[in-house]
UniProtKB/TrEMBL annotation, chains A, B:
Species name: Brachybacterium ginsengisoli
Signal peptide feature range: none
Gene Ontology molecular function: DNA-binding transcription factor activity
InterPro entries: ATPase_NBD, HTH_MarR-typ, ROK, WH-like_DNA-bd_sf, WH_DNA-bd_sf
Family per record: Belongs to the ROK (NagC/XylR) family.
Domain of life: Bacteria
Entries under SUPFAM superfamilies matching the protein: Actin-like ATPase domain, Winged helix' DNA-binding domain
All copies of domain HTH marR-type, residue ranges: 33-77
Protein's name in the database: Transcriptional regulator
Amino acid sequence: MTQSGSPSRGAGRGSRRAVPVGHAVMRSANLSLLLRHLHTRGGRSRATLAQETGLSKAAVTSLVGDLAERGLVQEGELERRGTVGRPGTEVRIAPHHVAGIGVELNVDYLAVCLLDLSGEVRFSTQVPTPYELDDGAPEGRAYPPALLLDGVAEQLRVSLAAAEREGLWVSGITVAPPGPIDYEGSSVRLASNLGWADVPLGEELAARLGPDHPELALENDAKLSALAEAPRLARRGITDLVYLTGDIGVGAGIIAGGRLVRGWSGFSGEVGHIGLDPAGERCRCGRRGCWETMVGFGTVLAVLDEDDPARSGRLPMAERLARIRTLLDAEDPRLQQRFTSLVDDLVRGVGVLVDVLNPQAIVLGGYFGHFADLLVGPVQSALDARLLAADGRVEVSGSVLGLDAAAAGGAAVALERVLEDPLLAPVLPA
Amino acid sequence: MTQSGSPSRGAGRGSRRAVPVGHAVMRSANLSLLLRHLHTRGGRSRATLAQETGLSKAAVTSLVGDLAERGLVQEGELERRGTVGRPGTEVRIAPHHVAGIGVELNVDYLAVCLLDLSGEVRFSTQVPTPYELDDGAPEGRAYPPALLLDGVAEQLRVSLAAAEREGLWVSGITVAPPGPIDYEGSSVRLASNLGWADVPLGEELAARLGPDHPELALENDAKLSALAEAPRLARRGITDLVYLTGDIGVGAGIIAGGRLVRGWSGFSGEVGHIGLDPAGERCRCGRRGCWETMVGFGTVLAVLDEDDPARSGRLPMAERLARIRTLLDAEDPRLQQRFTSLVDDLVRGVGVLVDVLNPQAIVLGGYFGHFADLLVGPVQSALDARLLAADGRVEVSGSVLGLDAAAAGGAAVALERVLEDPLLAPVLPA
């Protein structure tokens, strides 16, 4: 059991490369370089790989052989680029041998995602949580951890069985628990919506999965969602972004210079309680004017009728959101009003994040993302209007992964282990 | 002319090591590894170096030879550790050959710092700027760039002459201008306190220094100050910190996971205008409740008598601060009141930075640092009281470098060039 190991927290300044470079390290680094290159850029010939990476053709051939032996790459189609010379055979990521698993453990549902190295979702499931809280009275009631953990372990077993059926070696499992993580102890510390405190989630899951389970790691949902959205933006050269989760609580996943900003104890992005108005509404936390009191999902639910089904925690989130969409389409005036002021309230907090972090992109996730059509345009305009300098402009978009973002990000983080060290993957039987 | 190249903005996730590792790169990386190791940990024998870095003794001997040839390391005293074997000769950073220069260009003064590789300040100067603005009417008046640039170039020539006199090769010059930087164009964009816009500071200085000047780079003062304070904290394992500059404006330098967070266009840490109170005071920027209106140096000056000398921009900053200290010591009630509420106002913004970034340390710089004895304790207590989890605790301290922080940080950044690539240093004449 380790904390999520990737992307790394970054070696300190002055010790960026803390290991000496010997021949074994050199080979491993070059295997990783080639595998990442193919993973990011897609299939290409050995000659193109040599040209683009600066490695010799002989080295590329030998390294590709190693990667193929472990089922990480395979031969593909002929590559035809330009007209000179004979076409090379394309080398590409092998989709059928290595995968990672991500799990999001939520108040409403469990989402599991099995992602192969080529980026394809090979299996996924969203199941309601196995125990229902009484509506409206979640406070003070503990959600029995054992019951929920049994449910998670069951879904993980189903996913691992799916992987085995498809001949996939699983490089790791990343779990996003519904609250702050004690990274040292791999426990969930305060999942206030579940009434949990100090549940040793990592150990408990490991015990349930038995001795031969893949490496388990915990990571925060907003951080995993940010990592899941990052590649889409990185393809356009964007390496500084903030992902906002919109639920009852609000959180941020921060990527700066291509690296996840975790904070020293893993608690970066706890933006729900930043104080933006000393005269504002009283928050659950006891303070006034927390951002959550302005933009949390509760502010939308609060304008609905007492008995509106969207208020019920028994319904899957997707159904609740669909119900709210129906009301908006029917021009419910209270909801329309709420979404209009939601734009201003979002901009107040996003403005702070922009000033502190200078990101190039803001991605709206959770319920914000679901209503991206109503929020992205006005939020973008308001941010543009408050700009001090044109090249500080930030681009606002809705999450493309929706409610699966954290699970997909977890699977991608699990795959990072093998991208960083391809020698982890077992050699295929001859 | 380049933008400040160090610490790097971080290669993207998925391309952490974008260059292949061949033998030349391997040697250069290992030279850097050894030099950084000695720079961070201090002198030690070749045997200890081999043990600690994992390099072979033969490799260490050969690499140390290369470093010595370029005047980067030298033989020192005998090392006596344990009792077995004969004592080795210590290798240590050579103080007398390589240095970096940092310049802070301020409204009130120019500070220049010449720092050698061993971390010793070999020459420094603080001179008043050569042109005086009328008190109280800085807006709308442009501070003539040419005049100020002549002054900077003059001080740089003095520093370069000092370096030459002492036989120091200068690895680079980093300049902190008094406003946002256009990193692409190396110009100062909006130095509102000087009335500047789009002054091509880099080019202008380069032209004044002539063809053979060391590499010039620009970097923001808060970022440089953060880098200057970072090693002190890194020695205690702290790699996540926020440095706050307190002046008329307020800025933050952010280091996360040991790396400077620059933001995509270099504008991270522009925290003076984060909006913390919709009903707050109107700010120069036109919005209400900006943090600067609550904690900027102007809020202290505002409680002084109209003709108090501390209000005069003609006086050096150190004298103005000393004057305020005298008034505080005399228990001036308005100032005492101001510093009491300053604590609350500081905590509001620092609380936001803590929630967003989860730093382990907050360093108070500028005038905040000068009055650290009055601010650190109460700010620490208030932050402790709002903690959600014990291991998210942040440590507050005053800057130890005071008004020289940015210049010292600039010199350290210039030295990073040679720590990253020791082969930049010229081979010493035999």
